[in-house]
What does this fold into?
Amino acid sequence: MKVILFFVFSIVFTNHAISQTTSLVMVSESGDYIGQGQTYDLNESNGTFTPYVNNDGSVRIAYNGDAGYFSVTVGPKDAQSLIIGPYPNATRYPFNSPTTPGFNASGFGRGCNTSESSFDVLDVEFDTNNELLTLVVDFEQHCGDLNDPALTGTLMFNSMGAPYPPIPDDDSDTIANTIDNCILIPNLNQADVDLDGIGDACDDHFTDTNFVLDSEVGDYIGQGEYQEFYLIDGHITASKNYDNGVTVQFEGRDSWTLSFAAPGDAVLSPGIYNNATRFPFQEVTEPGLSVSGAGRGCNTLDGSFEVTKIVFDNNDEVQEFAASFEQHCTNSSNPALYGLVNFNRDPIDLIFVDDFE
It folds into this structure.
């Protein structure tokens, strides 16, 4: 009897191991550039799959077979570890903002220039050396934006299939850890007043860190658009530049740099600075100003700015900064780019200003 039982167990165990699935099934809507409106069933009978775990926490599975070469990359935000859960609002990896997920499905000689995507990690497991053991992902990708045709699919790597593990929800508020802005404290409403990506329920200090661009029609830098950038959109940092001024940098879907400097390399202080020219090429008697980003910058410029708050610590690190500006590429007769920038602005200052406005 013992021999028979052991024999049966061995058969069941062997069949279960064999049932592991590695495949990539995709359905392309008519007009989708990547899939060209076709359906694909890529599996180990017609190709090989190779996993790659990147230093930023993303995972790429590459297929090479009869249909050609294709790869799918999924990445969490801020170089976190990939875990089970939904990942909405993903953009093209590796050009996604560090504060949003990244995704890229490309191959057969085709890739998106930009994309809007979402994906759900149904199962994922790594070994102690961070090698990928298992991955299951449902995804939807639109080259361009969500109004464009979709490529949908399911990627399975060494998967036993359903049932999949439960979605982590550490505070039991029905919001998955992957999208919860306050993982350890229940906050079903996900309120985030200062838009810094930290839910109000666990945000112990409100600060105002953001910048606004208001571009006139014909302005080269802002392209005639009104744009707002907060910490949920990307990383915003500020540092003292080599002209004793302040440079604010944004790293998101695009990169932006805003630099301000007083005349004569003087330490920047609160006040109005007129007749500014392009930083860092301004004359010693002129203030320096430069707002550039998304691959665009002025060759020369005329502008002005007002610093309303600036605080350095003993190590010359920028603690607080607030300024408004007006910039014209080439000269003041050209369309303007107006803007406001705040970095760690004191919320008390913000309340007073809003009251008086």
In short: Residues 43 and 338 are 54 Å apart (CA to CA). Confidence is low (pLDDT under 50) at residues 1-17, 349-357. The chain has two helices and 20 strands.
